Amino acid sequence: MNDTIELHGTRTGNCFRVAIALEEAGLAYRVVHVDLASGEHQRPEHLALNPAGKVPTIVASLPDGQRLVLSQSNAILLHLAERAPGTLLPEGDPTARALALERYLYFVTDVIAPSHSGFYLGRVPATGNGAELLNQRSLDAIYAADHIGRCIGLHQR
Fold first, then answer.
1. What is the CB neighbour count within 10 angstroms for residue 101?
2. pLDDT tens figures, 39-85
3. 3-state helix, strand, coil in the chain (%, to 5)
4. In this structure, are residues 121 and 127 in contact, taking their beta carbons and an 8 Å threshold?
5. If DSSP codes are grouped into helix, strand and coil, which group holds residue 32?
6. Cα separation of 117 and 130, whole Å?
7. Cα separation of 67 and 151, whole Å?
8. What percent of the chain lies above the pLDDT cut of 70?
């Protein structure tokens, strides 16, 4: 069985997030670059892995020899956490694990998603101050997450 995970992607936030998790987990991987600008994500080779034509997509071998293809970054991250126990999520303490997942999922929904929208709105002409409002909401969410984490002692773990 080949334990090297293939990461199909490019320079996007979701692909970086998966690459960082692979590094932190100490898992062997190789990058298969997908050139979005030239439409590689819509070519049959990539669509065979991910019919939605999105990145990141990983291809991994399972212990039973089966091939696993995942294409949603949060599902990929949870798979990597399970593949390398204790590296990305706390192990053995259900409370610590639940708190880590709460903070991660809060960050994904309340910080990354609005920030991405703000980035997009900032690039589209005639959007008014929508981008500025979303960017401020993202900064407020980061501050709130950090403040709450300090209050409940998560930064000491």
1. 14
2. 999 999 999 999 989 999 999 998 898 999 999 898 999 999 999 99
3. 55, 10, 30
4. yes
5. strand
6. 9
7. 43
8. 72
Q: How many residues does the chain have?
A: 157
User: For 8-17, b where at least 16 C-beta lie within 10 A, e where not — what string?
Assistant: bbbebebbeb
Which residue, chain included where needed, has tokens 């910080």? 111
Report how far residue 83's alpha carbon sits from residue 100's, in angstroms, rounded to the nearest whole number.
Answer: 17
Query: How far apart (Å, rounded) are the C-alpha atoms in residues 31 and 10?
Result: 9
How far CA 49 is from CA of 109, 115, 121, in Å, comes to 26, 28, 30
Q: Does residue 70 contact residue 49 with C-beta atoms inside 8 Å?
A: no
Residue partners of 106: CB distance under 8 A and separation at least 6? 141, 145
Nearest to residue 29, comparing CAs of 4, 60, 54? 4
State the pLDDT at residue 156. Answer: 45
Adjacent-strand bridge partners of 61: 67
Nearest to 7, CA basis, from 15, 127, 54, 133: 15
Q: What percent of the chain has pLDDT over 90?
A: 49
Q: Which residue has the tokens 């970086």?
A: 16
**φ, ψ (nearest 5 deg) of residue 33:** -70, 135
